[in-house]
Amino acid sequence: MASGTFKPTNNTDDGIWYSGGFDDSDSSLYLGNAGIAIHSFIRFTGVNIPQGSTIDACFLRFKSDGAYSGTVVDVDIHFADADNQAAPTSEGECNGLSLTGGIAFDGIGSWSNDVQYDSPELKTRLQTVVDRVGFASGNAIVAVVKDGGSSGSAYRACYDYGWSASDCVELHVTWTAGGGTTVVAEPFILVGSLAAGVATIDPIINPVFRFIFTLTGGADGLSDQVMPISSFSARLLSGNPTFLSVVIPGLDYSAQIADRPNGDLSIKMGFEVAGVIVLTEEIVRVDFENIQINEGAVNQSITLDGHRTETWSTKTIALTGASYRNLNKGKIRYRVVPDIYVKPGDTVEIGLDSFIIDNISLSMSGSQFNMEVAEA
């Protein structure tokens, strides 16, 4: 596991913009509404994270340039979804940035002068950038802090590079270098059964996972629509709402999505052995609730998400290939080789540990797919 702290390196690496204005030479960055909704960008250069690494932790650290207590301050933090993002130079370029999904940083408390404050966890959003095929160690990453509906004249302000190169915003990241798993997230056809002599599927020996995303159409009198995806993330719970979000590259499927407002979002996972899909299983299904159209200067995409509450029959299952173990407040969390049958509520056996699963986190982006199971 490695870690790094990254900062802007010149005065134009950070700045603000708002309706009718842009400034990359101001002495402060703003979070919230200073009489008008203000958004900030921060460009971090020389980010030496290898492409495809697993982001274990990520946050922004701000240093307040004064005392601020106005309420309510709500912002959303994104990253530019680009391989090596240049600093924007105008309001139009800022608005045209292709962004990852946002992480809410809401109800920000009072800030005191010259005190540092950290953002919420941002690892899932940075993972999207690092998993891009064109991303490489040493590239630049741009964070974007957008106002999320703050009250009038409620804001926080921090040092930018132009005021203090030592006190400007920092990006803190911990990561694990990527492995060799192959992930394919596009429609597939089941073309065979388990080959003779292959008693089990070992994704460590045969690390090819395939995914198929479907937006069902039955509730709208239509057929199901299979679509390619560039990433998805899910959090499975038993007896509480399971969440799924998928990103569809481009806008080609806009009409098909609009025609199926009452559909389900479904992800199936398959194992490929020697070029043959030998086993598939639906791993998550939710109600289609929200759509977001993302349009940048170059890239476009559609994000769909939703929830569904479901309870599964419980069982005991052994998981293998643990690559990470965390013990926090007496609760265990493991990152494991993906299993298509494990569900929340199951009793899981991993090495010498045995516990009941509270939740399962799934994330796929680029060439990486991760499954984590957490103790109830």
Characterise the protein shown here:
The strands form 4 sheets. Strands 16, 17, 20, 21, 22, 23, 24, 25, 26 and 27 form a 10-stranded mixed β-sheet that branches. It is built from 3 helices and 27 strands. The chain folds into 2 domains: 2-176, Jelly Rolls (Sandwich), CATH 2.60.120; 182-375, Baseplate protein-like domain - beta roll fold (Phage tail proteins - horseshoe like beta roll fold), CATH 2.30.300. It is globular. Helix content is 5%, strand content 48%. The protein starts with a strand and ends with a strand. It is mostly beta strands. A hairpin with a 4-residue loop joins β20 (290-295) and β21 (300-309). The longest helix is centred in the middle third of the chain and has 8 residues, at 123-130.
